[in-house]
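Next comes one such specimen:
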Amino acid sequence: DLDTARHELEEFIPHVKNISDGSIKKMAGRDLMRFKEFKRQGIAVKFGRFTQKENKQIRKNVEEFLSLTGIDSAEKLLFTSRYPEDKDTIYRLKMEHHFCEKISEGIPRPWRLIYYRARKMFDPNNYKGRYTEEEKEKLKKYQALHGNDWKKISELMSRSNLSVAMKYSEIKSAINYGPWTKEETQKLMSAVKEIMKRKVETENPSSLSSLEQSNTDLWIEREKLNQPLPWTEIETRVGSRYWRQCKQKWNSILASKLVRERQLYSGTKGLKAKINLIKRLYESKAEDASEVNWDDLSNAVGDVPRAYVQAKFYRLKVSSVPLWKRKTFSEIIDYLYENKLPELEEKL
């Protein structure tokens, strides 16, 4: 029953209403029982970037399946269509030995995402180095013939889908090699913010409300700064730069922010920032952390993302407020204002 399956999956995948009926049927067969078992063990279903532990588990699962079936390479297992003479045998072995269940064992994610991750990890065409001039000409010819059918083109080029798509994007763009204008930089930052917001909405809709309140350009928390982004989409939104330039510019923006944060919280500036932070929190009269406008606060304390200011507040209360876990938010602020603030001002 499609409606029942969709309803049951909604507990684990909040954005399930946007998934096609065909995908729901596959997930009901491949994922639902796994998700329920993970729930029983107290493990939440995950999305986003794969961890090293998960990558290691995927390698283990693939190696064990190869050993079980006698298939002699991961490429044959995961890219069976490249081996037409063996494909019937490989498909039969995959069915007999429950490939879907085996490949996803121990990983609390949708099967499809695990499968795509395995294909990326074990595709030898992912790591072939720079394109030659001959390859670039072939790529342009194949794209003219087949459009953006990157799967077809990747087979013809013996390169991965992602590789040929991004290289063609680089070749076709009207490249501007000059300094970035303010307008280009703003387009880049707006594109990244919108995409990150979309990812958070998909992976954790409950956290979206806090993002909606953000007025800063770089609201992204430190642990999210360097996660992979769809650079070809960002390139399209910027319009005047190809994807690699966009990526390099974004990384330089992050580096600049991190340097400013380190400068802000060191030496005399550090003392002033802590004093300013405590005063602003006290003046806010907030009874709970959720009532604090962290974006306004981060602008007042210094040009840094809100997460940095929140981290500094956390360190202040942990290092300065005795038994802070037993105190309310307002009691912690009062203690910092009455006891820590005079000490910092004297030190300054």
